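Quick start: read one record
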Amino acid sequence: MKSIRKIKKKKEKSKINVQEAKITKVVEDNSAALERMKQVSVCCDKILQTFKNIEPQFKSFEPPPELEKEAIDNKIADYDELNKKPKQELVQIANCMNIVTKPSMSKEDIIKLIKDEQ
């Protein structure tokens, strides 16, 4: 009887040791990951400081071109008549122009919004 109890106690201790080893490994892995994250954070801070200290070589006095608006204007200019376009295309055009549309809107309502925005 005593030997069976000893065997059971050894098994329980070995299970506990295995569980503790797993927990220790997880904690060590997390510690290593945190250290790497700290190193990356320090590197990012250095990069940002470098960017803040760099002055631009060329200064432009002209505002940057609005490429999106020009592309939208060209896209609309290409259409002969908005009435001939399907509703889905009109919705896409309106979305490009930052016009909020609703599914319940009619084709005519969307065309009015697009023309008003031009």
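Residues 67-117 form one domain.
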